[in-house]
C-alpha cells in the first residue's frame, strides 16, 4: 500500500532550495510514497506555558498531521553549523506532551543542502542527534549532504542530472526503509 510521508522543510524562505528539492523528491516514488509538505512557519515558539490542556490550534494541527504520516522526510539548510531554529521548534512542538511525541516510531530520512561545499553536514548531524530520543528510526544511508546547491536549479527546475539520479536513489532507499519499518 502507498505510504504517507510528511516532508518537513527547514527553511521558511519562499525561494528555498530545500523546498525545491522537496518538490523534486515528492514525485519520485509514485504508487509507493505519497508525499506532502507539512508547513512549520506558522508554529508559535514552543513554550510549556501555552501548551496547556487546550494548546494553540497550530500545535494540534501540526501534531495531527505528523501523527497521520507513516514516515518523515526532513529537507533542511544549515544555519550556523546546526539546524535552523524553525526546524528545531517544529521538532519540539511535535515532541510533546511528554511520552506522546507525534514523531514516535516514524521512520525518517534527512537531506541537508548548502550553496557551500559541506552540504549542511552540521545541520544534518545535529538533527540526527535528536532522533533516537524521539524514537525515530533514521535511514543511515545513503547520506545526503548536498553541496553547491546554488548552481543546481534553473528557476524552479532541477537542472543537474547527476543530482537527480542521486535523489532518485535516495528516495528509492527511503521507500524501502519506510516499508521495512511500517510493514
Ligand atoms: C546560513 N547559511 C549557511 N550555510 C552553510 O553551509 N553553513 C552555515 O552554517 C550557514 N549558516 C547560515 C546562517 C543563517 C542565519 C543563514 C540565513 C544562512 C547559508 C545557507 O546555507 C543558504 O542561505 C541556503 O540557501 C539556505 O537554504 P534555503 O533557504 O535555500 O533552503
UniProtKB/TrEMBL annotation:
The highest taxon in the source lineage is Bacteria
> Listed GO molecular functions?
oxidoreductase activity
Top-level enzyme category: oxidoreductase
Residues in NADPH-dependent FMN reductase-like domain copies: 4-147
Supply the EC number(s).
1.-.-.-
Q: Which PANTHER family match?
A: CHROMATE REDUCTASE, NAD(P)H-DEPENDENT FMN REDUCTASE LOT6
Q: Which UniProt keywords apply?
A: Oxidoreductase
InterPro entries under this entry? Flavoprotein-like_sf (IPR029039), FMN_Rdtase-like_dom (IPR005025), NAD(P)H-dep_reductase (IPR050712)
Record's protein name? NADPH-dependent FMN reductase
Amino acid at each position: 500500500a502507498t505510504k504517507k510521508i510528511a516532508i518537513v522543510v527547514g527553511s521558511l524562505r519562499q525561494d528555498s532550495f530545500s523546498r525545491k528539492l522537496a518538490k523534486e523528491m515528492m514525485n519520485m516514488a509514485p504508487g509507493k510514497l505519497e508525499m506532502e509538505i507539512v508547513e512549520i512557519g506558522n508554529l508559535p515558539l514552543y513554550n510549556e506555558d501555552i501548551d496547556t490542556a487546550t494548546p494553540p490550534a497550530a500545535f494540534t494541527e501540526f501534531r495531527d498531521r505528523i501523527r497521520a504520516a507513516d514516515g518523515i522526510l526532513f529537507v533542511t539548510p544549515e544555519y550556523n553549523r546546526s539546524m535552523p531554529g524553525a526546524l528545531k521548534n517544529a521538532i519540539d512542538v511535535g515532541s510533546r506532551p511528554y511520552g506522546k511525541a507525534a514523531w514516535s516510531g516514524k521512520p525518517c530520512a534527512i537531506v541537508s543542502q548548502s550553496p557551500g561545499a559541506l552540504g549542511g553536514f552540521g545541520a544534518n548531524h545535529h538533527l540526527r542527534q535528536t532522533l533516537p530520543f524521539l524514537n525515530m528510526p533514521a535511514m543511515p544511508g545513503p547520506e545526503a549532504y548536498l553541496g553547491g546547491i546554488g548552481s543546481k536549479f534553473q528557476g524552479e527546475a532541477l537542472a543537474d542530472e547527476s543530482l537527480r539520479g542521486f535523489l532518485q536513489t535516495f528516495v528509492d532507499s527511503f521507500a524501502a526503509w519506510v516499508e521495512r519499518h511500517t510493514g
